[in-house]
Structure formats: structure tokens, C-alpha cells
Amino acid sequence: MSPTQRSRPDPDRVWPLHELAREFSARLEEDWPPLWVQGEISGLKLHAASGHRYFTLKDERSQFPAVLWRSRLAPGAPEPRDGQRVEALVQLVFYGPQGRLQLDVQRLRGTGQGELLQAFLELKERLAREGLFDPARKRPLPAYPRHIGLLTSESGAALQDMLKVFRRRWPGLRCSLLPVPVQGPQAGPALARGLQRLAAWPGLELDLIILGRGGGSFEDLYCFNDEALLRAIATCPLPVVSAVGHEIDTPLSDLAADLRAPTPTAAAELCVPDLIQVLERVERDGRRLTQSLRLRLERENRRLRAARTHRALAEPLRRFHETRQALDEQGQSLRAALSGRLGRSEEGLRAAQRRLRGALERGQSGAATRLQGWPRRLATLAARLGREAREREERQAARLDPLLRRRLEDLSRRLAEAGRGLERLEAGRLAALALRLGFARVRDEDGRPVERAGALQPGQRIELGFQDGRARARVDEISKEDA
Amino acid sequence: MSEAPATFEEALERLEEIVQKLEEGEIGLEESLAAYREGMLLHRFCQERLRHVEEELLTVLREAPAGEDAAAPALQP
Questions:
Q1: Which residues of B fall within a CB distance of 8 Å from A285?
Q2: Cα B77 from Cα B56, distance rounded (Å)
Q3: Distance from first CA to last CA of chain B, Å, rounded?
Q4: pLDDT tens per residue, chain A (483 residues)?
Q5: What b-and-e string marks burial along B7-25, b requiring 16 or more CB atoms within 10 Å of the CB?
Q6: Which homologous superfamily does the CATH classification assign to the domain defined by A15-112?
Q7: Spatial contact of A371 and A353, defined as CB atoms under 8 Å apart
Q8: A290 to chain B: which residues are within 8 Å by CB?
Q9: Alpha-carbon distance values, A360 to A51, A346, B16 (Å)
Q10: Shortest CA distance from B72: residue in chain A
Q11: For chain B, what are the domain ranges?
């Protein structure tokens, strides 16, 4: 609907109320575009769930209900307060459900602050577009600073607040203050120049810079919105912490800095660790260091004990058994081969006897007479052959045996030596380590090593052996622990 | 043994690396002993750093008079 088409309402038409409300609202917004009004805030209510603010805007003679939607409250702008005189850019609207005229507040500023706030918002938007407030730009602060640069007023409470925190939490910290004005028209450029000077000051080797001041009005803190300062913060070679005012104040320096702190005290606490906690951490690390080495030595000792029964003996014995078995098998097959050949010789002899006996029985008497002595001679021969074969086998076996025995003896001797060597090596090394770590050798009166508290009697004399000598001592008291 | 730590932060980080390595027990015995020795040195270094408190907390810097930027800045306690 365009304004030109709007005409006087038809006097004969009967209007449903909601249509009238809609029509009225449309005409109102058409005839009254947003405009600035001036008045005082009263009856301010913050609706907790929505974040919207409801209040009455009034002057000496008139009042309007007003609403400030949360989305319209500019970040960084001062929070509206009861009794505050303000200028507001408003849209007049008709609120149908309650049948009343109200002000939809689009922008709010303190009386006379309009231009300043406007400039603030514009600068903020421009620098944000430029990426100056980009979280990716932010640098981490050193965890254990040694030297912090301070950019604030020499006489302000902010300085004393910060020094108090440093003294309490992180004594030994060096601070270098470059005094600057933190209020008034010259403060912004002075801060910008001061920041550059402080960061480049010869011979300081600062870890970071804190700039700030205590709380104040929007105008008081305005120097922390100075564009030159914001650019100096963004280009500063050192991390910069912005600590301005109280919790609710958010000047642009907070957005440009690497870290924003709600107050100078909070900034100091964020910038230094707590000495007590750090000392405790270092002490704990030291205890863990010693403890872990002690556990390591105990573990090595257990491994040594295990090695004596396992590695040094069990495995070589297995090799010994394998060798033994292979030799047995060889001996067996040798015996089998010898007895096979002997059997074949005896069989041949028996066949010859049978043939001779046959010839005799067939009555070849002459021959028989000549051959009469043969059976006995053949039997003797067979016995000799058998004996020789057996002797040959025994000779071979005898040649084999010393070889086998020597190899076995050699093996077991080397095993025993290796075992003793290993034991000496590990025990010596562990003993030396233990002595260096403050353990001592304990022996009784007869020079026997004492391994358990239970082996001692109160009053008994003992001798303590150290790296560099011995000490004699007497047992006072014995308290046993369950292993 | 690595060279002396430059800062407290480096020393503490290295110390905690060593503690972790020793606790995991993956390194040889000789190496463990060397690591332990280095760890003790770092531990002592950290303790000394923390206990060494300088007298002066605050130095106020004074700038050279305006217009004499070339002059060396004066450092006053």
C-alpha cells in the first residue's frame, strides 16, 4: 500500500479491531519514520529470558512506554540505567494486544554522547571489517614472564593494584612502567606513542605489555578507543593485555589486544603464575624423578634374578639336550649299520657250511677226509669275524665318545662362566648405582650381608658400606613392613 | 646431556619430559641414569630460579624531553 492510495476510512464500514490496529499501525509508521526523542529512563526492567529491556521514557509532562530489544543494544554501549537522561532514536508503534502506543527504541545514547558513541560504533565496525579484532591474530602469553611492561598512569590505582598481585603471586618479576595520561583528549595518541616506545625501549627485553586504567565513564575511557592506539596494539611485536575499567566496560582496546582482562587486578592475575603452585610442581617433578629411577633399579634387579634361572641356564641347557639327542641318534644308526653288515657275514658263513656239509654227505670221501677239519676251522673263522666286527664298532664308538664328552664338557664350562660373568657384571653395576643413589651395604658383626630388617636385633652392631668407606652403627629399633 | 636451559619455561618442560620418559621405562639403564642426572640438574635450576627474588620490582621509565627523540632514553629507578 502506498501513501498516495491511502484515503480517509469509509465511515460506513464496520472494522474488526485487529484490522483497525493493523491499519493504524501501518499509517503510524508511514507518517512517523524513526526520530530522535529526549527523556529520562524510569521503571527499567530487564526481561531475564529474552534479554529485552522495558522502561518508560518520560519528561516533566508526558511519558511513553518503551522497549529496547536485546539485539538493538550496541555492544560496548553503556547499559541504560534508571534516572538516566538519554536521547533515543525511536519508531512509534501501536501495540495491538494492549491497545497502546509505544516507542520501539532503535538506538540509545547518553545526552550529548551521541556523536562520540556514533564515532565509536563506526570505528568498531570499520576495524572489525579490516580484521583487526580477528581472534586468529591473538598471540599466547608467556607462561612464566620475567619482565612486564606497564603502560598506565603513575598515580592511578590500577598500577598499585597490579603491583600488589605481582608481589603476592610472582615475586621476582621485573616491571617497567612508562607513565602515560589515561584520560583527556591527549590520552589516546599518548597511549599509542607510549606503547610503541615501550615495546622498542632498548635493553628491556619485555615478555609482554599491560595497558589499562581503573573504571570511569564512557567519556573517561574513550582514549582506549583511539584508532592510533588500536593500530599500535595490533602491530606491537609483544603480546598486549588490555585491562580497562570495571567488568562492564568494553573499550575497543580490549578487542584489539591479545588478551582482555576485566580489571587491572584481573590482568595481573592472568599474566603471572602463582609461585607456590609452580614450586609445588617443581618439587613434585623432583620426587617423581627419583622415585622412577628407584623403581627402575628394582625392576632391573628382578630381571637379573630372573636371568640367572632363565636366560643363563635354561636356554643353553636346551641346546645341550638337543646336541645330546642328535649324537644319540647318530650312534643308533651307526650301530644298526654295523650289526646289519655282521649279520650278512654270518649268513654267508652259514651258507658255506651248509654247502660243505652237503658235499661230505654225498660221499665224496677223499674230499671228505681232506675236509674233516674244516667245520671247526670255519666256526673259529666265523667267531673271529664276529669278534672283529664288534671290535670295529667299539673302536668307532670309542673314537666318538671322547669327542662327544669333550664338546659337552666345553659347553657346560662355558655356560657356568657366562653365568658367573653375567652375575658379577650386573651385580657390580647395580651395586655401584645403588651406592651412588644413597643406598648402603649392611653387614652384621661377622661380615655377613643383612638383607632383611627381621634378621636384626635391637642393640646389634652393624657395618654400613658406602661408595667411599664404611661406618659402624648400632641398631636402635626395628620396624618390619610386610613385603 | 643437552646444553643448559635458556629459560625457566624450557627447563621445566624438559624436566617433565624426562620424568615421563623415566616413568614409561622404555629406555636403557645407562640412558636412564643419564636422564636422571640431567633431570636433577634441571630440577635444581628451576628451584634456584624460583627462589631467586630480585630486590626491585618496579622501574619507572622517563622519556627524553619532547623533540629529542634521537637521545637515548633515560632509565631511572
A1: 12, 15-16, 19, 39, 43, 46
A2: 9
A3: 40
A4: 444 456 788 888 899 999 999 999 999 999 999 999 999 898 999 888 888 999 999 988 899 999 999 888 766 666 788 878 888 999 999 998 999 999 999 988 776 555 677 788 889 999 999 999 999 999 999 999 999 999 999 998 999 999 999 999 998 899 999 999 998 889 999 999 999 999 999 999 999 999 999 887 777 888 999 999 999 999 999 999 999 986 666 889 999 999 999 999 999 999 999 988 998 999 999 999 988 888 888 888 888 777 776 655 556 566 666 666 777 777 777 677 666 666 666 677 677 777 766 765 665 555 555 556 666 666 676 677 777 777 776 666 666 566 666 766 776 677 677 667 766 766 777 777 777 777 888 888 888 888 888 888 888 899 888 888 888 888 888 887 754
A5: ebeebbebbbebbebbeee
A6: Nucleic acid-binding proteins (2.40.50.140)
A7: no
A8: 36
A9: 142, 21, 108
A10: A202
A11: 8-76
Buried b / exposed e along A169-183 (16+ C-beta atoms within 10 A) = bbebbbbbbbbbbbb
> Is A37 in a helix, a strand, or coil?
strand
Q: Give the type of residue at B62.
A: R
Question: Cell for A68?
Answer: 529496547
CA closest to A193 among chain B residues: B63
A138-273 and A15-112 share a CATH fold? no
Which of B46, B52, B73 is facing A172, going by the closest CB pair? Answer: B52
Q: Rounded to an integer, what distance in angstroms lies between the CA atom of residue A347 and that of residue A365?
A: 27
Domain boundaries, chain A: 15-112, 138-273, 283-436, 441-474
| C-alpha span between A39 and A55 (Å, rounded) | 12
Q: What is the ipTM of this complex?
A: 0.76
CATH numeric code, A138-273: 3.40.50.261
Amino acid type, A245 = G
Closest to A54 in 3D by CA, of A69, A40, A76, A72? A69
Q: Which residues of B touch A (CB under 8 A)?
A: 7-9, 12, 15-16, 18-19, 22-23, 25, 29, 32-33, 36, 39-40, 43, 46-47, 50, 52-54, 56-61, 63, 72-73, 75
Å from B57 to nearest chain A CA? Answer: 5
- What are the beta bridge partners of residue A240? A209
| ∠ Cα A301 A287 A451 (to 5°) | 35
Chain A 287-326, CB below 8 Å of chain B: which residues? 288-290, 292-293, 295-296, 299-300
For the record, the C-alpha cell of B41 comes out as 640438574
Taking an 8 Å cut-off on Cβ atoms, the answer to whether B15 and A293 are in contact is: no
- Write out chain A residues lying below 8 Å of B50, CB-based: 172, 275, 278-279, 282
Helices A187-200 and A227-235, packing angle to 10 deg: 20
Sequence-separated (6 or more) residues with CB below 8 Å from residue A179: A152, A153, A154, B60, B61
Q: Is B59 helix (H, G, I), strand (E, B) or coil?
A: strand
Q: Which residue's C-alpha cell is 530487564?
A: A46
The grid coordinates of residue A313 equal: 641356564
The model's pTM = 0.50
